[in-house]
Amino acid sequence: MRKITVEPVTRIEGHAKITINLDDNGNVEHAYMHVNEFRGFEKFCEGRMYFEMPQITPRICGICPVSHHLASAKANDALVGAAPPRPAVLLRELMHMGQIIQSHGMHFFELAGPDLLLGFDSDPATRNVVGLIQANPELATKAVMLRKFGQEIIRMVGGRKIHPNFCVPGGVNKALTVAEKDAIMATYDENMATIMAGLDIIKDWAEKNQDVIDEFAVFKTGYGGLVTDKGSLELYDGQMRIVNPDGDLWTQFDPKDYLDHISEHVEPWTYLKFPYYIPEGYPGGSYRVGPLGRLNMIDQIDTPIAQEEFLTYRAINNGKPIENTLHYHYARLIETVFCMEKVRELCEDEDITSTELVNTSRDYQGEGVGMIEAPRGTLIHHYKADEDGKLDKVNLIVSTGHNNFAMTHAVDSVAKTYIKNGDVREGLLNRVEAAIRAHDPCLSCSTHAVGQMPMDVEINDAKGQLIQNLRRDS
Amino acid sequence: MTKKIVIGIGNPLRGDDAFGYVVVNEFNAKYGESENSDVDCFHMQQLGLELLPYFEDCETLIFVDASVKVDEGVVQTELIEPGTMIDNPVSHFFDPETLLSSTFALYQRHPRTYLISVGAKDFEIREGLTTPIKAVVPKVLKEIEKILFE
To answer: ipTM, 2 decimals?
Structure first.
């Protein structure tokens, strides 16, 4: 048996290794995704005061700090028993839309783009964002400006561009001025056009690469995410819904009851756990979250352009859940359209510039759950505090954790499809990584890690003898 | 656009990785509202492509970061040039060289760029710099002032 190791996976945040075990014929026996960094933020936060958490948890990762900030704030609202006033909810949601727009936009154009637009088998030296900029500088400029648009929303709403100290228990601490609202809308049309251009790109790519999409990590799982009371796409609030592989309801519940429905399985070869729907057990109760998961479990989208795109998308599998991992990229752009339409809707709401920002009443509960749809999927912050507000227990289930089973399974599936008879060409290995990248994982969040190192691929035989060494450095 | 930019990189909750964060706070405390406020000095937990528009007209750019590649407590200042992605395959996090490559690819120019690294070993989940690293903050501030104002 030969073993192929890919460490770390390129173009995702954090630290992961892939091990691919080949049999004596050079075909894949099994592939694993290992996450090697130990998560320590939950223990670090024990003993801290609950109101510090919206400033502490965004430091877990520099990619999705706003998601952690908002989930933490929602947990605190519940912990102190103070629901924010409507204007504060609107402002938090507007910040959240900015976060998703910049994150989804970055992922499509900068992370997935090199594979989709330059090709899986293109030269690794240029199959990256710099190569993309050189190949299409006009598109690259628009992508950079789209990310800046999302970041500017965060800055206008929160008061600073990096780690805004915006949420307080029961509300927010800054109003949005009319001038700031107008500044957000000033570049709305051009950025919406960029996203629609991205949608055209992915639809065109999908049409030309249907055979790739149909054989690349296609498998059944459940699907989960937040929904409105009408079963519509919901990214800030609502209830969590999990459906089975056929799209039929497994469960729908209030976020505070998540432990009655979700548990975590542990494997010895990775620090990242495997959440699953309890009645179905593991692995049968595994579910995917994030764009593909969300669009597979909702009934509709409440904004018109995104709804139209959603209907076209769902027709791919005649209204049933879409199982093709590469369609994460398509789903991601539909969500970005939704977020842009929500930005307009929120900015047109007269309460968005209100100064009624905080509910100062208190009905201290000592425990709170904050659930939100981060760009990558469902994010859960759960705090338990003593009577003085000092945290006894912190539980964080991050989006990438929910997708752990799916990513591992996708790696195994792709490896078995593309590595045969010992043929381990460079483009094949990138396809294995692409299976993970489609989920847009944030391993820093899921394991709260830091750091990176050059990629090193070792091919070992069953006895651990080095057969071949592939490196991605100079 | 600001002609001079200083960016401190790192996670303030990961031990000495907070070095860049501490330095920019010290710089802004000294120069924030003064005559030298033509310098834009800020902290980034990790670098991303949204910085490119800021670099379009920038003349002098300084990155400050803790590094495992330098001996502990040693301050290393180097002029850096655009680098290739092979050296940094992770795009959620860009290194300064890759940002310069991207800047050049978009604008056909890039700022004169320095990387000030301080050698560090402690990156555990905790707050505060270790003593040897804290001790070199004044030295790094002087290095920044020398680049920007002399």
So the answer is: 0.86
